[in-house]
Amino acid sequence: MSKKLKERIDDYQLITDCKILPRIPIVICINGRGFSKTTQLIDKPFCNIFSECMLTTALQLCSNIEGVLFAYQHNDEIILITRNDQNNDTDPWYDNKVQKLCSATSSIATLFFNKIAQSKQLNLTGDAIFLSQVFGVPTQAEAINTIIYHQQQNFYTAVQSACLYNLLNKYDNNSIRDLLAGLDIDGKIDLLSQECGINFNDYPMAFKRGAAIYKVPKIVDGVMKNKWFVNSELPIFTRDQSFLSNIFRMGTDIYRG
C-alpha cells in the first residue's frame, strides 16, 4: 500500500473529523425525521403511547451515553446535556468527535424507538428515523438556558398544535390560519376555549411543559445510589430556578414526588 496514498486519504478524513472543545457541556439534540408523516395516524395533538415511546427512548439514551447529566423530552425531540469535566480523569465519550457522537446517538434513538413502538403497537406509517445534532456551550449556565429555551419552545408548539388539530374539526386550513393570525399565546388559548370548549390547562403536564430524566438518590439494598428518574410533571423552569441549577451543580436532585 502506498504510504502517500494512505496519508492523502487520511487527510481527507481528518478535515471533517471535528472535535468539540473539551471540558465544556455538550448538547445533543435528537429529533424525528419527517415525523409529521410517520406519526400522521396517531392521536393529535397529544398521544400518550407516543409520549411513552419517546420517554423510553430518552431513558435508553441516558443509560447508553457516557456523561449524560440531564435529558429533556418534548414532542419528537430529545435534548441531552452531557458533561465530561466532573473530574480530571474523565474521558470524553468518543473523544468528543462530532461525527461519531451524531451517528451513535441517532442510531441508538432509532433502534430503541422502533423497538418500543412495535411492542406498544404504536400506529406509525413506517419505521421512525432520528437525526442528531451536537454542539458545545461555554458554561453550565448556558446549558441550563438551552433547556429553558426548549421548554419555552415546547409550550408555544403545544398551544399551536392544540389549536390547529381541534379547530380542524370545524374549519379548513385557510380559515384556521386566519383565525390564528396575529394572536399571542393567551389569545390562542382563549380561542381554543371559545371555539372548541377546551381548556388548555386540562392537557397532560408533559404536553405543556415536556418531561425530563435525571438522577436522584435512592436506597437500594441498604446502599444509597443515584438512579435515573423520569419526571413528567415538571415545573416551569424560569419560575423554579433552583430545579435545574441543583441538578446541574450536583449531578442529581432530591426526589420531589
Quickly list its features.
single chain, 257 residues, alpha+beta, Alpha-Beta Plaits, 9 helices, globular
Secondary structural class = alpha+beta
Number of strands: 6
Contiguous uncertain segments of 5+ residues: none
Q: Which fold name corresponds to the CATH topology of the domain at 21-149 and 206-250? A: Alpha-Beta Plaits
Number of helices: 9
What do we call the CATH homologous superfamily of the domain at 21-149 and 206-250?
A: tRNA(His) guanylyltransferase (Thg1)
Strand order of the largest sheet: 4-1-3-2-5-6
Main pleated sheet: 6 strands, antiparallel
Elements, N to C (H/E): HEHHEEHEHHHHEEH
Strand content: 15-25%
How would you state the average pLDDT, rounded? 92
Helical fraction equals 40-55%
Spatial separation of the terminal alpha carbons: 63 Å
Present the secondary structure layout.
Blueprint: H1 3-15, E1 26-32, H2 35-38, H3 48-64, E2 68-74, E3 77-82, H4 98-119, E4 130-136, H5 140-167, H6 173-180, H7 185-196, H8 205-209, E5 211-220, E6 223-231, H9 241-250
Antiparallel strand pairs: 1-3, 1-4, 2-3, 2-5, 5-6
Helix pairs in contact: 3-4, 5-7
Structure, described:
- The chain has helices at 3-15, 35-38, 48-64, 98-119, 140-167, 173-180, 185-196, 205-209, 241-250, and strands at 26-32, 68-74, 77-82, 130-136, 211-220, 223-231.
- It has 257 residues and is an alpha+beta fold.
- It has a domain at 21-149 and 206-250: tRNA(His) guanylyltransferase (Thg1) (Alpha-Beta Plaits, 2-Layer Sandwich), CATH 3.30.70.3000.
- It is globular and about 70 Å long.
- The chain contains nine helices and six strands; from the N terminus they run αβααββαβααααββα.
- Helices cover 46% and strands 18% of the residues.
- The mean pLDDT is 92.
